[in-house]
C-alpha cells in the first residue's frame, strides 16, 4: 500500500510518500511545495499548491492519503489562510479519488515519537530511524512523512483487532 502524507502550509507544504507492506515501512519520496511570492495573491498561491500536489500524485501514484488537521492559531487570519491552503490540498487529493485520513499534530507526534509534545528535531530523528534514512529530512517533509506513517499504523489497527478476536483453528490428530 502506498501512502502520501501532507503537512499543509500556505508558504510551504510538505509531502512524504511511503510504501507499507505489513509492518515494513519503505521510503519512496519527500519534499516541499512552495506557494510562491505572497504578493501574487492568495488565489494564485492556492493554485500553485493544488498543481504541486497534483504533480506529486501523478509522479508517485499513492493509493491513500493523510493530511494534518488545522490547529487553532492565536491569529485568526493565519488560521483561516492555513485552512484555505489545506482545502486546496484536499481538493487535489480528492480529485484523484484518494481516500483522505486526517490526524492532529498531537496524534502524529504520539505515533512517531511517543509524546504529543515532541519537538520538530525529535520528529525528524524518529522519521529517519523508522524509514532507515541516511539523514533526517527537512522539517516540513519529516512532518509529512510522519503523517503518512501515523496513517499507515492506524490503518492496521482494525486488521489487528480482527486477527486477535478470530478464534484460531486447531488441527485434530
Pick out its properties.
globular; 5 helices; alpha/beta; 173 residues
Structure description:
This protein has 173 residues and is an alpha/beta fold. The chain is 49% helix and 21% strand. It has 5 helices and 5 strands; from the N terminus they run E-E-E-H-E-H-E-H-H-H. It has helices at 42-60, 76-95, 105-112, 120-130, 139-165, and strands spanning 2-7, 12-21, 24-34, 64-68, 100-103. The protein has a 5-stranded mixed sheet. Helix 2 (76-95) links the parallel strand 4 and strand 5 (100-103). Helix 1 packs parallel to helix 2 and helix 3 (105-112) crosses helix 5. The chain is globular, with a radius of gyration of 18 Å. The relative contact order is 0.20.
Look at the helices and sheets and give the structural class: alpha/beta
Low-confidence stretches: none
Count of DSSP H/I helices: 5
- The total strand number stands at 5
Rg? 18 Å
Helix % is 40-55%
Percent strand equals: 15-25%
Shape: globular
Please give the oligomerization state of what you see. Answer: single chain
> N- to C-terminal separation?
39 Å
Secondary structure topology:
Layout (H helix, E strand, L loop, with lengths): L1 E6 L4 E10 L2 E11 L7 H19 L3 E5 L7 H20 L4 E4 L1 H8 L7 H11 L8 H27 L8
Parallel strand pairs: 1-4, 4-5
Antiparallel strand pairs: 1-2, 2-3
Helix pairs in contact: 1-2, 3-5, 4-5
Question: Summary?
Answer:
The protein is of the alpha/beta class. The chain contains five helices and five strands.
Amino acid at each position: 500500500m502506498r501512502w502520501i502524507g501532507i503537512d499543509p502550509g500556505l508558504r510551504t507544504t510538505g509531502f512524504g510518500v511511503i510504501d507499507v507492506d505489513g509492518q515494513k515501512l519503505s521510503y519512496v519520496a519527500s519534499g516541499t511545495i512552495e506557494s510562491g511570492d505572497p504578493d501574487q495573491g492568495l488565489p494564485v498561491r492556492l493554485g500553485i499548491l493544488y498543481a504541486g500536489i497534483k504533480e506529486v500524485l501523478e509522479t508517485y501514484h499513492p493509493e491513500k492519503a493523510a493530511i494534518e488537521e488545522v490547529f487553532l492559531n492565536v491569529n485568526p487570519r493565519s488560521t483561516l489562510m492555513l485552512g484555505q491552503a489545506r482545502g486546496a490540498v484536499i481538493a487535489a487529493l480528492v480529485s484523484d479519488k484518494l481516500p483522505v485520513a486526517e490526524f492532529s499534530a498531537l496524534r502524529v507526534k504520539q505515533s512517531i515519537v511517543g509524546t504529543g509534545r515532541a519537538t520538530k528535531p525529535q520528529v525528524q530523528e524518529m522519521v529517519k530511524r523508522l524509514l532507515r534514512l541516511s539523514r533526517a529530512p527537512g522539517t516540513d517533509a519529516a512532518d509529512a512523512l510522519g503523517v503518512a506513517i501515523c496513517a499507515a499504523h492506524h490503518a492496521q489497527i482494525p486488521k489487528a483487532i480482527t486477527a486477535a478476536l478470530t478464534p484460531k483453528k486447531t488441527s485434530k490428530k
